[in-house]
């Protein structure tokens, strides 16, 4: 018996040592970093006995680095679905094993497998228009973004951000055309908007800074920035658009070159857990995708919360968008002199 006990003790020590030696590399935006560290990273490190390191940057930069490294260097990557779809098409992600992510059964069906087996969404967001109701007349439709009384107030998302190509699609809609079929009217409208634009932004932190310093009063953004915007300028208001907001599913993907695949699955499962999803929603970090999260009305007001709200969002055809993106980047840069 003493021999068996000794062997068991040695095995436990070896297992703990192996876990301690593992380092999970996570690629994400770095936005709301303090809250993400407290809600996800520190408790996960305590649970797994491993270390976690980061790579930060916007979608385009981080996906570009991953592609350049042949899918290596990162174990889990956070991306908006517009960019993770590019990664899927370019073969830098591996399929996940649903059996290793039991919390999948607790999230809304739309988020469980949005891209054919390459990973779940951990939040459902919306992209819409935000404005300072103290200085701007109410905005009630996408056409209002192109009003001529907004001179020097607008900050648009850069064309390489998630929302940038959506400006083209929405401009086409306002111009009465399908931008995927004929993008000229959309870019004519964007060029007419140029005098209203104070600066385009490339990430959420830059956009919040433009609003907080008073350089801009109107922008098009994803709802996870609303809490920071209202903290900076309490009168910032999410526009109630009669033609609806745009759905965004932020996904979790495991690159083909991950060196810690089991630990990556464990991390994804933790991000989808009731506890993490509840804290993230209550603290204004991300909208919950977990169906067990319960929010007070004032907490739910800032999020896409519940099946009915999810069903009301407009969706984008990312395959068509990605096919046009290169041309749209050139046309956009020609207008804004980049």
TrEMBL record:
InterPro entries: SBP
Gene Ontology cellular component list: outer membrane-bounded periplasmic space
Pfam families, sorted: SBP_bac_8
A biological process term (GO) from this entry: thiamine transport
Molecular functions (GO terms): thiamine binding; thiamine pyrophosphate binding
Keyword Disulfide bond carried by entry: no
CDD domains per UniProt: PBP2_polyamine_RpCGA009
Entry keywords, A to Z: Signal
PANTHER family: ABC TRANSPORTER SUBSTRATE-BINDING PROTEIN, THIAMINE-BINDING PERIPLASMIC PROTEIN-RELATED
Name recorded for this polypeptide: Putrescine-binding periplasmic protein
Gene (UniProt): potF
